[in-house]
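Reopening this ticket.

The earlier resolution said the output was attached, but the attachment link was broken on my side. Pasting everything inline this time so it's all in one place.
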Amino acid sequence: MNSKENFALTENYVAPTYKRFPVALVRGEGVKVWDAEGNEYLDCLAGIAVCNLGHCHPRVGAAIVEQATRLMHVSNLYHIEPQARLAELLCELSFAEKVFFCNSGAEANEAAIKLARRYGHEVFGEGVKRIITMHRSFHGRTMATITATGQKKVQTGYQPLLDGFDYVPFNDVEAVAAAITEKTCAVLVEPVQGEGGVILPAPDYLARLRALCDERGILLILDEVQTGIGRTGAFFAYQHSNVVPDILTAAKALGNGFPVGAMLAIDRVMRYFGPGTHGSTFGGNPLASVAALATIETVRDDKIVEKTVKNGAFLLAGLMQLKQKFPEIIGEIRGVGLMVGIDLKVPVGEVVSACLEQHLLVGSAGDNTLRLTPPLIIEEAEIETLLRILTEVFRVY
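Inline output:
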């Protein structure tokens, strides 16, 4: 099937929830993908921070193929050996003592919201259910998670929203303190706001939030759906701050493209998720678990986090040089590891489309921010190609 045939089929039969670019991608390897006509693209979006090990990583692919011929799915009514090993590994690499598995970031955040509410109810009493979230945050597309999201644009048309959320500015601990009441059970925050425009917090922000939550006796929930699994130059972004949350959510890169999500928590909180309180038919099934196991083991064994720190610094240095060349186009540059946002003084949509014409895949976030989230396996030569294409695109303005 050629690209035009694919476009027509999509338009005829797929829900129009996305404004799609005129490209039908059919194959990938490493940091490159190819369309139906065989054209090659450098992928610096990675499925929006999903394919951290690149496309079709051999170790992950082999694990999925082998498991698919053995056992793809059984119910969580039974013990699942790879799921248990995955939970153990996630706990070893984090603060967590228990893990709940699901299928996506939205589901992981949904589980975190439910657990926090249940904790509030059981520990403090009925009605202690309110959760503080941040302006410009993004937590998913379910009814609970769009309500948690501090952006009106994702909530429009879905009222009445779920009750129980209070919104404050990101990076403002005093605003969080002022918003806490006797009905507050938790604070939910992204260590780096991805969809909001790759917004980094002050160095002491998470530590101060942790101290505030401890002082008020409420939970700290970190949404690491986008920042987790090495993206920021630590396995989880909270580890930059040496802060321990009570609950953490992960998905996106957890299975390197295979749908899997997880909610991690400490025992004294997870104990309130007893039998029958929550569930997921597909969550942590054998196929998803081996995909995530192979992904995490590769990140660990191949020292991907260390490479991310090095290549992230190389990319940011190159972008700063671009800013000196094009100060009339490039505004603030923000980044940690290989999660980078570039504020533009020209329409970001035009730049994304121009990059696509030059066979470079990039994205957008926030109000007018160019987003770069390449696979963590990207090499310096490929970063140089990225910088060269951006230079050619910016020269047009």
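Reporter confirms the inline version is readable. The mean pLDDT is 97. The first helix runs from residue 3 to 13.
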